[in-house]
Design a protein that fits this description.
- This is Glycosyl transferase family 2.
- InterPro entries: Glyco_trans_2-like, Glycosyltransferase_2, Nucleotide-diphossugar_trans.
- One of its GO terms (biological process) is lipopolysaccharide biosynthetic process.
- Keywords: Cell membrane, Glycosyltransferase, Lipopolysaccharide biosynthesis, Membrane, Transferase, Transmembrane, Transmembrane helix.
- The protein is of the alpha/beta class and 318 residues long.
- It folds into 2 domains: 211 residues, Alpha-Beta Complex (Spore Coat Polysaccharide Biosynthesis Protein SpsA, Chain A); 71 residues.
- The protein is 50% helix and 15% strand.
- The chain contains 10 helices and 9 strands.
- It has a 9-stranded mixed β-sheet with strand order 7-5-6-4-1-2-3-8-9, sandwiched between helices.
- Strand 8 and strand 9 form a beta hairpin.
- The protein is elongated and about 90 Å long.
């Protein structure tokens, strides 16, 4: 294993014991066929199945494989950040362990990076996901681009390439919650986006349920823009103006028509609408306050239990 390989592959793993053998069979021939000095950095994100022994065996069988073992589950993006902190390559690629993005696409990303692109994004073509998930993804991608001002076609595809300069800038950030593709896009000088294949998950289940997807998109929208907070402010001003106009209308109506018992349900509907706007505004404000709370605590973003093959990690990574 060379001290400074040209290419680093960062792969987070969480409960993927069924996918790992197939991943090894496809990934390692691709790595060895690149004709470049490479390293593969796996991050075991607190797996509770047999993923860790399989990864340790891969370290023993392949000198270019390294392993970071977390002492708990800290999430995909924190795992990738740990991989970035330990990756030594001039070109760093990320890949999921579930084989939904084929490792055979890696040479295409490196070709784009050789052409001078510092960030290589990807978007999935021929997605093998349920229709609802694909439609939801399109809607979220468009809304996210509008709010953040970015131009990322597929926020959910983690097969991506980053130049060493981008990785070093990301490593300097100390955000407790972040969204790596968007963060890299902010730093990029010459980004590019290419289509890649997509396969149906053959083993296991997706680690992103509805709640985690919603949580991730809140991190994206509140972490890279003040638009949600500003939109709530504008909505409050608009509702206040409409409320004043409606109040004037009711006063004039009472003077011209007289007291009436009608309109009770209309007033109740308006009251519920205003209450909904109020709660929505409190929720958005709470998201930003929550992010501030997470940052000021300054707790470690992840804890490393052991590094392979180096040995026990002496301290947590901030």
């Amino acid at each position: 294993m060379t001290p400074s390989p040209e290419v680093s592959l960062v792969i987070p793993v969480y409960n993927e014991q069924e996918s790992l053998p197939a991943l090894f069979d496809r990934l390692f021939p691709v790595v060895e066929g690149l004709g470049r000095s490479c390293e593969v950095v796996f991050i075991n994100d607190g797996s509770r199945d047999a993923s860790l022994p399989l990864l340790v065996r891969a370290v023993q069988d392949h000198p270019y494989v390294r392993l970071i073992d977390f002492n708990g589950n800290f999430g995909q993006h924190m795992a990738i950040l740990a991989g970035f902190a330990h990756a030594r390559g001039e070109k760093v690629l990320t890949l999921d362990a579930d084989l939904q993005n084929p490792p055979e696409e890696i040479p295409r990303l490196l070709e784009q990076m050789d052409g001078g692109h510092d960030v290589v994004g990807t978007h999935r073509v021929g997605r093998r996901d349920p229709l609802f998930r694909k439609l939801a993804s399109k809607v979220v991608n468009r809304i996210s681009n509008r709010i953040t001002g970015l131009a990322i076609q597929d926020y959910g595809c983690m097969l991506r390439g980053y130049d060493r300069r981008i990785v070093d800038l990301i490593n300097q950030c100390r955000e407790t919650t972040t969204f790596l593709p968007a963060l890299a896009q902010k730093f990029a000088q010459s980004p590019v986006d290419i289509p890649v294949g997509h396969a149906e998950r053959e083993h296991g289940t997706s680690k992103y349920g509805l709640y985690r997807l919603v949580r991730l998109n809140f991190d994206l929208m509140t972490g890279f823009s003040l638009v949600p907070l500003q939109a709530v402010t504008l909505m409050g001003l608009l509702v206040s103006a409409l409320s004043v106009l409606f109040g004037l209308f009711l006063v004039l109506r009472r003077l011209l028509v007289g007291a009436e018992a009608e309109g009770l349900f209309t007033l109740m509907a308006l009251n519920f609408f205003l209450l909904g706007v109020l709660l929505f505004g409190i929720g958005i404000s709470g998201e930003y306050v929550g992010r501030i709370y997470l940052e000021v605590r300054q707790r470690p973003r992840y804890l490393v239990r052991r590094l392979y093959p180096e040995g026990p990690e002496k301290e947590s990574r901030p």
